[in-house]
Amino acid sequence: MKTVVLLFHPDMQHSLVNKRLVEAAGQKRSVTIRDMYALYRGQPIDVDAERRILMNADRVVLQFPLKWYDAPTLVQRWKEAVFDDYWLHSGKGGQSVLANKELLLAVAYSEPSYDFTKNGKYRTTIDELLKPFQVLSIHLGMQFCQPFTIYELDDLQKSSKEYAEMIVKEDLPIQK
User: Fold this and answer.
1) pLDDT for 24-36, tens place per residue?
2) How far apart are CA 160 and CA 97, in angstroms?
3) Is residue 53 part of a domain?
4) One MF term from GO for this chain (predicted)?
């Protein structure tokens, strides 16, 4: 299975969690890692290259830190540039060119997980915050995998190993 990790971290130099996750994932042979801020900070997105990468992958991982309860701004800019309905539905019989590929989110957040419960500080869950990505996957014809989420004070060594194993695992749980 070919997996591409699209890393959207605006400040990798000061990252602890995402840096460790990427290092662990990079040790897997079938994984390609793309640092999207290194490629596109202040630069136009190479739409054709990004589409080729998506079409050649079996699993697409969007990895990012949760900033102000959302993905970093480059994620939205990338989605708006790359996803176009004419391109998406140019497959056989109008089928999505990304049909049946997997979309996995890897999200790091800096507040305790108990704050993200129905009775917690924010009265919402991480899954609810990430719901727009699940809707996007439906539109794209992709299978939405159960997200990998990590609180920054979790056991980072253990979590990074689990992440590296997860992104290459054949049968990830699909969220319905």
Assistant:
1) 999 999 999 999 9
2) 31
3) yes
4) NAD(P)H dehydrogenase (quinone) activity
